[in-house]
Amino acid sequence: MDLILIRHPKTVVADGTCYGSTDVEADPKHLASDVTRLRAVMPSDVRIISSPMQRAMRLAEYFGPVETDARLVEMDFGDWEMRCWDDLPREELDAWATDLSGYIPPGGESLRSVAARTIDWWQKQPRDRTVIAVAHGGPWRVLAAHLLGIPLDHTTRLEIGWGGRAVFRVTDFGVQLRGWNLF
């Protein structure tokens, strides 16, 4: 089976703003562009799964009937949500940088927690046909790290752009990365 991970389109949120679990919308221009581009390369006879957040759902709905799964939502940054990254307390950002996977932003969740729920989602997926899953950069980075055997603290190296795709081939013999950040 193939697993196709798609990151939602660019949002309407101002650049430099911290957001994760806040349900913001996709920018309509980017949504339209991503739909056109992705429709041309999407296989048929697939399961389509999405984060329930509107920025992911709006894109997923263009590919067919969509199942949603709350385990695919973006990281909850707690008190940091919708604040400018530059305005966040330096000591909190430094603590996060020191322990990327274990640090919990005030009122939020850790990357380890995001990984646990995302990997749980993946482990419970039937392997009977191709899955197209539309969600967020955070869950896709941690899932890619898991599938490729990369330590969780190195997930920042696995950037996937707005509307980008990562394609994995899953067989009885293991997982193969077929493409990363495809546009």
Write the layout of secondary structure elements.
Blueprint: E1 2-7, E2 17-18, H1 28-39, E3 47-50, H2 54-60, E4 67-68, E5 83-84, H3 90-98, H4 111-123, E6 131-135, H5 137-148, E7 165-171, E8 174-182
Parallel strand pairs: 1-6, 3-4, 3-6
Antiparallel strand pairs: 1-7, 2-5, 7-8
Helix pairs in contact: 4-5
List keywords for this structure.
Rossmann fold; alpha/beta; single chain; 5 helices; 183 residues; six-stranded mixed β-sheet
Walkthrough of the structure:
- The chain has helices at 28-39, 54-60, 90-98, 111-123, 137-148, and strands at 2-7, 17-18, 47-50, 67-68, 83-84, 131-135, 165-171, 174-182.
- The strands form two sheets. It has a six-stranded mixed β-sheet.
- It starts with a strand and ends with a strand.
- The chain has a single domain (2-182), classed as Rossmann fold (3-Layer(aba) Sandwich), CATH 3.40.50.1240.
- Helix 4 (111-123) packs across helix 5.
- The model has no long low-confidence stretch (mean pLDDT 96).
- The longest helix is centred in the middle third of the chain and has 13 residues, at 111-123.
- With 183 residues, the protein is an alpha/beta fold.
Short recap of the structure:
The chain has 183 residues and is an alpha/beta fold. The protein contains five helices and eight strands; from the N terminus they run ββαβαββααβαββ.
- Architecture, according to CATH? 3-Layer(aba) Sandwich
Strand order, biggest sheet?
4-3-6-1-7-8
CATH topology: Rossmann fold
Low-confidence stretches: none
Largest sheet: 6 strands, mixed
> Could you say which structural class the secondary elements and strand pairing correspond to?
alpha/beta
Oligomer type: single chain
Q: Count up the helices.
A: 5
